[in-house]
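Q: Structure tokens for this one, please.
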Amino acid sequence: MRGGLWQLGQSITRRLAQADKKAITRRYFASEADLKKTVLYDFHIAHGGKMVPFAGWSMPIQYKDSIMDSTINCREYGSLFDVSHMCGLSLNGKDCIPFLEKLVIADVAGLAPGTGTLTVFTNEKGGAIDDSVITKVTDDHIYLVVNAGCRDKDLAHIEEHMKSFKAKGGQVSWHIHDERSLLALQGPLAAPVLQHLTKEDLSKIYFGEFRMLDINGSHCFLTRTGYTGEDGFEISVPSDNAVDLAKAILDKSEGKVRLTGLGARDSLRLEAGLCLYGNDMEQHTTPVEAGLTWAIGKRRKAEGGFLGAEVILKQLAEGPKIRRVGFSSSGPPPRSHSEIQDEKGTNIGEITSGGFSPCLKKNIAMGYVNSGYHKAGTKVKLVVRGKAYDGVVTKMPFVPTKYYKPS
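A: Here is the predicted structure, written as tokens:
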């Protein structure tokens, strides 16, 4: 879904308020019967979730509160997201690490057991097939989560390379965790609330770390990570226990942690300067252009050995021709595909995500510009509905991150 979920949510909210609700329902929910549903679908409906099609699933874009309010509530208290549409999988076997390192830019071998990192699956041209959070559980077990909209192509890509790897004697197998659901608990109350539901001391689990533990009586995979810039967790829970866990989290927070939909998830990740695959990163974009050079392991920069390494290592040496940067601007908020111009009106790039920041109360955006225009403070023009407005290249994240790291 291009162009940002935030504005879709605003559009639905306005139209539901102003227009014939049956007509709106027909328009937005026409393909409801064809969509997959998470095990929390009825729970969302019961809590006032406004459901929309997203990556083949029926997902809540918002609940009874506005996207603005739920974005702010996440940063002040907390949010609970159903992200069960995303695909979790495990790679197993003594060769699972060398196998995965052929497909991603991370130094997987260099990760300590129980730790993870953001990485990118690349193609032969160095372009991004998908971004993913991967975790080395042990030397022969890798757990990873891929984006819902990329599931089919990701799994086909992994399977194709796994067949040829095994044909050469490599020992690797996989399991797709369709029996589990995924919840994301984010915000300042995430740890205090979750601590009520587990005996494990969460203060000893830091950002990027992974544990298998009991939460609310069920065996869960817990990763201290998220997509908001806040402290928080992604919890892989057996699907039979997912609704009970969601209820327990909301109950223990005494109403301060709210169910939150895709609309606020989009504004939160934009404020945190995080890419949305399909908007800010695509198959023709390299990790270097996308500003993810930090995700390329030091050993991988020296040795290569992943798909497209030649292209990526050349960009590291010579610099990329385009770069992803942040912007703040005047006028109406820029949206995906808004043109970026220099001060003379010459095209220098394109916005990939943009909107009004609920927390900063100003327009923010990200996009790609020609190298040379990427430095913070560079003045630009952003074209919205045919008119150019003043903008400036701005460091990301726009809102400071609050990841829980050792002091």
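A few notes: Residues 13-30 have pLDDT under 50 and may be disordered. Residues 321-402 form a domain with the Elongation Factor Tu (Ef-tu); domain 3 fold (CATH 2.40.30.110).
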